[in-house]
């Protein structure tokens, strides 16, 4: 993706942050602009989930959260017939 004019106005730290935000948006299958506009309930819940994840410093705790998330994802996929 070529840099936009907005990218040219960012500091080096801003470039890193914006680049990381682009990576996150890509992984989530969402446009970067979604992070800058009004927040939907899903976006607010995602923000809370990321904040809470960052607050979990124990590797075993993070593994438990990931295990639970994977279990819920499998259950949701099963319920939808996938």
Keywords summarizing the entry:
82 residues, mainly alpha, 4 helices
Question: Largest sheet, described in full?
Answer: none
Give the SSE string: HHHH
Span between termini: 33 Å
Could you tell me the number of beta strands?
0
Number of domains: 2
User: What's the overall average pLDDT, rounded?
Assistant: 82
Tell me the overall shape: globular
Unreliable spans are none
The percent of residues in helical segments reads: 55-70%
Number of helices: 4
Look at the helices and sheets and give the structural class: mainly alpha
Output the radius of gyration.
16 Å
Query: What percentage of amino acids are in beta strands?
Result: under 5%
Describe what this molecule looks like in 3D.
There is one protein chain. The chain is mainly α. Helix content is 70%, strand content 0%. The longest helix has 21 residues, at 59-79. The radius of gyration is 16 Å and the shape is globular. The N and C termini lie far apart (33 Å). The mean pLDDT is 82.
């Amino acid at each position: 993706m070529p840099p936009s004019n907005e990218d040219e106005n960012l500091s080096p730290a801003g470039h890193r942050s914006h680049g990381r935000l682009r990576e996150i948006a890509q992984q989530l299958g969402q446009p970067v602009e979604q992070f800058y506009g009004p927040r939907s309930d899903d976006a607010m819940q995602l923000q809370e989930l990321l904040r809470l994840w960052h607050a979990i410093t124990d590797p075993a705790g993070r593994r438990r959260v990931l295990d639970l998330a994977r279990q819920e994802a499998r259950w949701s996929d099963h319920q939808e017939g996938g």
